[in-house]
């Protein structure tokens, strides 16, 4: 499956990295994740799979349960305890960094990427920026994953209280999120051309490195939008136009601009 990635400067030296959410790049559920504990145990015990594959199945099972629980909170009546928990969850989710959301969007099913960026940008710089976010993601999310796993037994102690164990479920979500971001970082590194390709291109400007896993698409339309905007910081109107042009999630893109 090919994913369409969009890269552009959004505020000063801050760049935005986002994945298109159009139908051609969207992820489709595999339909093999069991829905019950019995089904999960049967699938884990009946099939001979590597430990990594079983871990993936377990994570997908937990993720499915978390998504269903979140949907239930979202549909809770206004003013109820579940509704208030949902509001708290939204505030916590707003603190998740956009780079983490971007890396999570690159699943193991992605076998190639198409990178769109303004024509005015140096393609080697775009590649280096993408490689940097992938390398830093493998380091940061591995560290945060270990920290979140360490906190899980501690927060599970709150289960004895007659209230929803919000700390436990939040740490569980963060564990899952860092797991997916780490996988996305590693997958992105596999798909990007290596550093020797940049050196080859700088030595021979007439020959650009080609990769079966990565296609580079500089956009003149992108350039036109940036020319009409403030060079130091893109206004919301321009960001909305970019999101429409490349089918991006506006909320995630605005997070990059609002980062302190």
What is this entry, summarized?
The chain is of the alpha/beta class. It has helices at 37-46, 51-74, 81-93, 98-104, 123-156, 166-191, 195-203, 220-227, 236-246, 250-258, and strands at 2-11, 14-19, 112-118, 214-219.
Q: What topology, given as strand order, has the largest sheet? A: 2-1-3-4
Count the E strands.
Answer: 4
| Spatial separation of the terminal alpha carbons | 34 Å
Supply Rg: 21 Å
Q: Output mean pLDDT.
A: 78
Shape: globular
With helices defined by DSSP (H or I, 4 residues minimum), what is the helix count? 10
**In percent terms, what proportion of residues is strand?**
5-15%
> Any low-confidence stretches, pLDDT <50, length ≥5?
24-31
Overall structural domain count: 1
Structural class: alpha/beta
Describe the main β-sheet briefly: 4 strands, mixed
SSE order, as H and E? EEHHHHEHHHEHHH
Determine the fraction of residues in helical runs and give it as a percent range. 55-70%
InterPro entries: Mit_KHE1
Keywords: Membrane, Transmembrane, Transmembrane helix
Biased composition (Polar residues): 202-213
Transmembrane segments: 151-173
Descriptive notes:
This protein is an alpha/beta fold and 260 residues long. The protein has one domain (2-258). It is built from ten helices and four strands, in the order E-E-H-H-H-H-E-H-H-H-E-H-H-H. It has a four-stranded mixed β-sheet. The radius of gyration is 21 Å and the shape is globular. It starts with a strand and ends with a helix. 25% of the residues are buried. Residues 24-31 have low confidence and may be disordered. The chain crosses the membrane at residues 151-173. Residues 202-213 have a biased composition (Polar residues). Keywords: Membrane, Transmembrane, Transmembrane helix.
